[in-house]
Design a protein that fits this description.
The complex is a heterodimer of chains A (655) and B (190).
Chain A lengths: L1 H13 L2 H10 L2 E3 L7 H21 L9 H10 L4 H28 L8 H23 L4 H12 L7 H9 L6 H32 L15 E3 H26 L29 H9 L3 H13 L4 H4 L11 H22 L13 H26 L19 H11 L27 H13 L22 H9 L2 E5 L5 E5 L13 H7 L18 H10 L16 E2 L7 E2 L20 H16 L3 H30 L4
Helix pairs in contact in A: 3-5, 3-9, 3-10, 4-5, 5-6, 5-10, 6-7, 6-9, 10-22, 11-12, 11-14, 11-15, 14-15, 17-21, 20-21
Chain B lengths: L3 H8 L4 H26 L5 H5 L3 E4 L8 E6 L2 E7 L2 H9 L22 E5 L22 E4 L6 E3 L4 E3 L11 E5 L2 E4 L7
Antiparallel strand pairs in B: 1-9, 2-3, 3-4, 5-6, 6-7, 8-9
The chains are: A mainly alpha (655), B alpha+beta (190).
Chain lengths: 655, 190
Amino acid sequence: MKIFTSIKDWIDHRLPVFTFIDRELTKYPTPKNLNYLWNFGSLAGITLMVMILSGIFLAMHYDPAADKAFDSVEYIMRNVNYGWFMRYLHANGASMFFIVVYIHMFRGLYYGSYKAPRELLWILGVVILILMMATAFMGYVLPWGQMSYWGATVITNLFSVFPFGDAIVEWLWGGFSVSGPTLNRFFVLHYLFPFLIIGVVALHLVALHQHGSNNPVGIECKEPSDKIPFHPYYTVKDLFGLGVFAFVWSYFIFFNPNFFGEPDNYIPANPLVTPPHIVPEWYFLPFYAILRSIPNKLFGVIAMFGAVLVLFFLPWLDRSKVRSATFRPIFKWIFWTFVVDCLILGYVGAHSPDYIYEATGISNQFLGQITTFYYFSFFFIMLPLLGLYEKPLPIPASLSEVKSRKRKWRFFGVFFLSSLTTPLWGDSLPLSHQTWSFQGPFGTFDRKDLQHGFQIYKEVCAACHGLKHLRFRDLEALGYTPEEIKAIAAEYKIETVNDEGEKAERPALPTDAFPGPYKNEQAARAANNGALPPDLSLITKARVGGPDYVYSLLTGYEAAPPADIHVAEGMHYNPVFPGGQIAMIPPLSDGLVAYNNGEKPSINQMAKDVVTFLSWVAEPELEMRKTMGYRVLIYFLVFTALMYALMKVIWARIK
Amino acid sequence: MTKPTSDKTLKKEPTRRDFLLLTAGTVGTVGAAYFAWPFIDSMNPAADVLAQSTIDVDLSPIPEGQAITVVWRGKPIFVRHRTAAEIQEAEKTPLAELIDPESDQDRVKKNHTPWLIVVGICTHLGCIPTGNTPTQTRGKYGGWACPCHGSLYDTSGRVRRGPAPLNLAIPPYTFLTDTTIRIGVEEKKT
């Protein structure tokens, strides 16, 4: 032991790391009355680390070329060991990061943590927020799906309002539209920015440790007994918070991984077709609503950027000398109204501007304008005026005078939950809701349905639709033996080049992916009256309604359209399909397929089996994901309980 | 930390706090280790790479005395159809003369002695030895000769002259039929 002490002393004398750790992490005096809202700073730091870690490992497999990016993400999901876990960890991590940071910021706003002498601490935090937004936006572009592509187009076009706007936008793109060069540079910057964030976080912490944390009472600690060392009191409290947070994050990773995502992003980017409902990720929705509320392009963009930039001036807009809202009777109400206002803005951003609220008759556009007005008047009217006219409650002289109060964090719980509600699109679709074997937290794929569904795909769908992300060897999960798979694969032909250099064909091997039915897109369109039969590898993930949608589509054909609908030549009437007209002929009919057991399935049975099969193709990791999920959730329950018990024991000494 | 008070606390009976600290610490450490595993494992060969890890080779077009090179897991595999004289020479070489003593029958499959299947990578520093095509030199021992540092191998793929320390490696393989082998799978022991 003595030798360790002397090595430690030797190092510390030359590079005072141990002194630093002791001073800034162990002994660092912290107000003793911090509530759970002060957990979110450390949670944000941990989330940043996890995002960087998972991002680095994802980057080892991702390919930032426009024609490869989408497929390389699917490659990660299907082939890389635990690739699906890393991707879902990272994708949901972005949402978790924003939830944590937004709560962290609202906490700062409520308790006046930006007031002297902590103005620069707040400003550095706003810089981190802006860097985070840029990073998140560029990260969302990388999967190169429809939302990625059109999100990138819309956001980069915002810069066109500035002088020389067109030149700026072309410079951002590296071309005349969002294209390969754009993707490549976004990937590089998406990798770079987190390290800039680390740098600003370091400054944020230096600024924090200069004057120490603010606290719920909002007065400086005057007596030594007001402060306690950071370790072990707040390390254990932060670990407890981490347990709760990790539990929530894990729930989304393992049981609801696409909750925050958009189905459209599982459709590869198409520069010629914009999706009908283009929305940004939920964490940008309030700003998006502000953009849309102002019916002038230039002022809309200025307002949107202004909504973020105004935060820089918050320390000077708020004229009140009192920090904590606890002692500001009017501000408290204004604050909560502001929180609700931000939530409504998010809701407005998620819905079409033309949407009319039936109960009140007001349009979404108008609601957005009111809430935008409130957003800015909070900063420019209420905060300055309140400083002059509000009469604060008596402020205690020291922390020890303060009785423990009922905490307000239940409101933040409401904020947290309501921020989880994502927009519900297309609720008007008449979907038929089925009971699926794989749904719910315990669901697994029914092997018999899968085999039957595969048979239907092979005998019916495969004539027009490919499954390019599925490899023959993957069929082992359906219960086929290697010999059976080899025989199935051999029924398909793969294009190759023979020894004379001419095009030839060879039978497919189990390691090959399913070859498409057409040689290229032109051939597919020529054979289908101009329509392109989509690849089905991700179909249940790429449509709103998922399996229910595909099932309803397959069973939703109506021979006679209503009198007021004119169905074009070569089209078929199907009310489930957006627009009601679909080029695909009704694919299923009674007696079309005979199963091995002699059963002749009905149309509904066939639809159900094939959708089960396609759901498995879209999410082959589903069963492993859920099994692993249970272990992880149980682990974090134990972890959290232990940390809670430990926290109670350690904190027992503090009054 | 030599204050008498801390000495006193050290000698105290283990408390509830000590128990919780130890348990929580263990649970946390185990969790961190498990968390690291997916990231480490993600760098291992992916499922599609593993799926390519066996190949079937048709032996029928290889005439006696010649060899072909096939690629297995990115490495060259020498598949050589040995003549009776070459087999005899490999079998009669006394083990005492060898750098890495191994009998010829241990390096081929029973009843398939004409077929020698080795990984075509010199065991010295990873160069590809010559001698697998008729135009290349096979060296003094009739097997392969490494162009980098002059190691020589015999008709059993055993190293006969250094600096290579070991015989050419034998990949796992199985005879599916008399004229087809599958490289990447070891023959089941009967």
